[in-house]
Amino acid sequence: MTEKKTDQLNFYATPIETIDRFNSFEHDYKKIYKSKASRSAIGALVLELGMDVGEKEMQEKLKNQKND
Predict the structure, then answer these.
(1) What is the secondary structure of 16-53 as a DSSP string?
(2) Percentage of the chain surpassing pLDDT 70?
(3) Are 33 and 42 in contact (CB under 8 A)?
(4) How far apart are alpha carbons 47 and 52 in whole angstroms?
(5) How far is it, in rounded angstroms, from Cα 47 to Cα 56?
């Protein structure tokens, strides 16, 4: 893993620096994604986040219907 901080984007970065950061992130992601356990954990997290988003949307729709 590189020592560079890739979690904060520098808006004034040159295109080459931006590409380097993306490549390092992609490399780290592929390393994590290779193990089966992390794939299922990532899938569960995505599913949970998706459910949270869907739940919030439904609550907003219900509020809008009550206001009408």
Answers:
(1) HHHHHHHHHHHHHHHHHHTSHHHHHHHHHHHHHHHHHH
(2) 28
(3) yes
(4) 9
(5) 14
Q: In angstroms, rounded to a whole number, what is the distance separating the alpha carbons of residues 38 and 35?
A: 6
| Interatomic CA distance for residues 43 and 41, integer angstroms | 5
Q: pTM higher than 0.85 for the full model?
A: no
Tokens at residue 20, please? 């380097």
| Cα–Cα dist 35/22, whole Å | 21
How would residue 40 be classed by pLDDT, with cut points 50, 70 and 90? confident
* Cα dihedral: 55, 61, 65, 68 (round 10): 140
Token pair listed for 10: 């520098």
